[in-house]
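S1.2 Input.
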Amino acid sequence: MSRVKVVDTTLRDGHQCLWATRMTTAMMRPVLERMDCAGFDVIELMGAVHFDTCVRFLGENPWDRLKLFRDTFKNTERQAIVRSKCALRFDLEPDDINLLWYELLVRNGIESLIAFDGLHDLGNLEGGLKYAKSLGARTQGWLIFSESPVHTDQLYVTKAREFLDRCEVDSLMIEDTSGILTAERLRSLVPALQAEIGPNVPLGLHTHNLAGLGQSLYIEAARLGIDNIYTCISPIADGNAPPSVQTTARNLRHYGFDIAVDDTVLGEIGTHFEDVAIRSGFPLGRPQDFDAASLDHQIPGGVMSNLVSQLDAAGLIEKLPAVLEECGRIRAETGWPIMVTPFSQFVGVQATLNVLTGSRYTQVPDEMKKYALGYYGDLLAPVDPDVLDRIVDNGSKLIPLVPPTPEPALPALRERHPQASDEELLLWHSFPEEIVANMFSAIPDETDYSGGALQHLLEEVVKRPDLSRVFVSNGTTTLDIRGR
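S1.3 Output.
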């Protein structure tokens, strides 16, 4: 019976896709030790977006969260994700900042680093990945799947070889951020990659369930000899997020594959996160029906979650179908960027502006102009000349037409913050100083989430002396409390 390894990404990708990355450390803390005993081979923990959300929105020091993970996960390999040469920003950073980012992740307990570049420009990853290996970390390269005229099997074979030879990674993974990879395409892509990389380089698969293809894809992947798959613990799974580990394990065992996760422990953890969701007003992940439109717009889960949230808050949710359709058009016109951070955000914002203004490319964000000019790396296909002219003409005139080389930043940073630790320096560099100062002075979420929803209800009832009766029923159990 073949063993398929399981990487859990609930704490990284699950709430990023379903809860707009708003899970606080307090929400995680009660089940971290149980997650360490759940039978996962690897637990993926954080990336740049989690640092951003902690600092800007949660009032948490992200390094404290990472240190908690280091001190708690003793049985399971700890993994983080790094993006291009951006460290904690969208723009490319100087080498000294990027190397410090890699070093601090390893120093704070990360054992495995998985890296991606949305353009597959591996010159943006080579130095960092080699440096991480020199520090003792395992390294892995993302082959980001996209459906377009340029993203052929041969392109992925070429990039796989480049990851191995140029970046010296230990393993590779097919990353399907938009959930559009079909079993049919997998049957051509995986054998082509296996023939190139050989049997000694592990090959993983990470999909999302946006189009409803996740479970059938993982069954086919196991049959093709994929070494590891990425899942989340339900209810922070499915929908925009990766597939449910509970369902995946059940399906793969049905077909004779060995999955080492502990179903009982997973049930306990799932119950906790369901209580957190109900208590905090977060959505529960649900299995998704097949959505053909996903094959066109290819918006990934985390971006979809934020896009829906922002349109809804603005009272413009009815514009979502038009925005998604516009995303597909923009991709075709701008060289088929893969819909992964940061390019999915660039396309999503440009599509929203085009739809809401009723005029295409009359308002151009700085990031879109920089993308078109090659600031983030070499494009796999050219931008449509007419569209490029509109982007350049209507974008900021302050952006040079030729990308400048980033200057070293650490010397001036250390001079400006002489008492700061390296971890603090990276935060001061990456975010506006007012936001960092507010984060350091903020009181993070200290709620005790260890009790269930019923305990929380009773705690709230005690605070309400005006209530004379509380009646709760779930159809099988009834709670009826009457005052005197």
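S1.4 Remarks. Residues 172 and 203 are 5 Å apart (CA to CA).
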